[in-house]
Design a protein that fits this description.
The chain is an alpha/beta fold. It is built from 15 helices and 18 strands. Strands 7, 8, 9, 10, 11, 12, 13, 14, 15, 16, 17 and 18 form a 12-stranded mixed sheet that branches. A 6-stranded parallel sheet has the order 3-2-1-4-5-6, with helices on both faces. The longest helix is centred in the last third of the chain and has 20 residues. 42% of the residues are buried.
Length: 445
């Protein structure tokens, strides 16, 4: 293949995903080279321990280094795959690669969420390129769908299950009625949850991915502090059972990105959500991910698959490598690069602004633990009325030690009204613990 260009690839990080990418590239190298018309060389990798014996791939010691920046600065490389995790060192690596006008491939959602704006600016200034399909939902090609297949659309609604760990835990609680802590321990034993699991179960992993999808769909980088983020720690088996009784609902941890196409007000939220079990995403269980995308031209499309795991993410990274090789060697280089610049072309950037709590509208589910005494229900109902919130259902369940669980659902109201009523009720001595509430998915797709 001497007449074809050689594309030289380096790796920073060779954990489970990096090893999976290296392994599949070696196994399928001949087929890929025939399809791409270029030779692929796996040149070197930066790792913590070059002498590690239990890697799934055998790599000559001469190709290994502990110096991540040495790989980033290597002038012989065309592509650098950053697969190490964390933020600070990956940021240094990414900027170094982009400042040299090279191709950066990353699956690092936290890096993109925190520093995406700076990285893309470096890419623009130095003619570098960023590919990041593996950063959101692993094997589901949602980034390619938004940036290529659906490029003609504006997106009033994107929502989905972006974290397999949380989906697995909620599914098991629903099926078995066990406690959150019991299922979490089992998920960790099976390798479905990290230790500690905070990034997953507190919603931050999902929030990182939501910020990336917001950029792709709407052309703005939203600061993570402006995203409403709640995890699943407080969801109980009673909530899951009552959700079904109240209206055939299931509880899922959703990322929700909504934009009013008339006002260009945008909201990004991550929280447990009651969803009608007839909805497609309500039936996506276990470790699977799913994303529903509503475009103003195409309507609603749905993407379901394995969102995590070394092979699913490796598949996405290899897809990026293939696109990068085509861009570097193909006859359609210019058009391919323009497509993969990931700069939304629907004029959405400057005029989009974040919606305030008065502009975020929906229905809600509340659970209160109260003392079992006369007049408590009336006090709570009065607080709702004082804040203009109309109740649709009320249930009371006796509990031990002279307490009760009080369940209420509302008609449509605003996020501000909900915050106000919670603040008023938290001053009520009759409440045994802080109130718990869920949003109800009431999407007009």
């Amino acid at each position: 293949m001497s007449e074809h260009k050689v594309v030289r690839i380096g790796f920073v990080g060779l954990g489970t995903v990096g090893q999976g990418v290296w392994k599949h590239l070696e196994q399928d190298q001949g087929d890929l080279e025939r399809r791409l018309g270029a030779r692929i060389e796996l040149v070197r990798a930066a790792v913590r321990d070059p002498g590690k014996k239990d890697r799934r791939v055998k790599i000559d010691a001469s190709k290994l280094t502990t110096d991540a920046l040495a790989v980033a600065r290597d002038p012989s490389l065309d592509i650098v795959c950053e697969l190490m995790g964390g933020i600070e060192t990956p940021k240094q690596v990414a900027l170094e690669v982009l400042r040299q006008g090279k191709v950066l491939i990353t699956a690092n959602k936290a890096l993109l969420c925190e520093h995406g704006k700076e990285l893309f600016e470096a890419a623009r200034q130095h003619n570098g390129r960023i590919f990041f399909e593996g950063s959101v939902c692993g094997g589901i090609p949602i980034i390619k769908a938004l940036s290529e297949g659906l490029v003609a659309n504006r997106f009033p609604l994107i929502y989905g299950i972006l974290n397999g760990t949380c989906n697995y835990i909620l599914t098991r609680i629903e099926r078995e009625g066990k406690t959150f802590d019991e299922i979490l321990r089992d998920a960790q034993a099976k390798g479905y949850a990290d230790s500690p699991p905070d990034l997953d179960i507190d919603g931050w992993d999902t929030a990182h991915k939501a910020v990336i999808l917001t950029f792709l769909a709407h052309g703005v980088w939203v600061n993570l502090k402006d995203v409403e983020v709640e995890g699943i720690r407080k969801v109980t088996s009673d909530d899951i059972m009552l959700a079904k009784e109240l209206g055939d609902f299931k509880i899922k941890l959703f990322a929700i990105i909504q934009r009013d196409l008339k006002t260009n007000k945008l909201s990004i939220r991550v929280h447990p959500t009651l969803v009608d079990e007839r909805k497609v995403l309500a039936r996506v269980d276990d470790v699977f991910n799913a994303v529903s995308v509503t475009g103003d031209v195409v309507g609603t499309t749905t993407y379901i698959g394995r969102g995590a795991g070394s092979d699913a993410t490796a598949s996405a990274v290899i897809s990026d490598i293939v696109d990068a090789v085509i861009g570097l060697t193909g006859k359609d280089r210019n058009s391919k690069w323009n497509i993969k610049d990931y700069l939304p072309s629907n004029g959405t950037g400057p005029e989009v602004s974040l919606a305030g709590p008065d502009e975020i509208i929906g229905k809600y589910y509340f659970r209160f633990m109260v003392t079992d005494e006369t007049g408590i229900l009336a006090k709570i109902a009065t607080a709702f009325a004082n804040n203009g919130i109309s109740l649709s259902q009320i249930r009371q369940q006796p509990r031990p030690q002279n307490t009760s669980s009080l369940i209420m659902t509302t008609h449509t109201t605003s996020e501000r009204s909900v915050k106000n009523v919670l603040a008023e009720l938290e001053r009520t001595a009759a409440l045994k613990v802080k109130p718990f509430y869920l949003r109800v998915a009431d999407f007009d797709e």
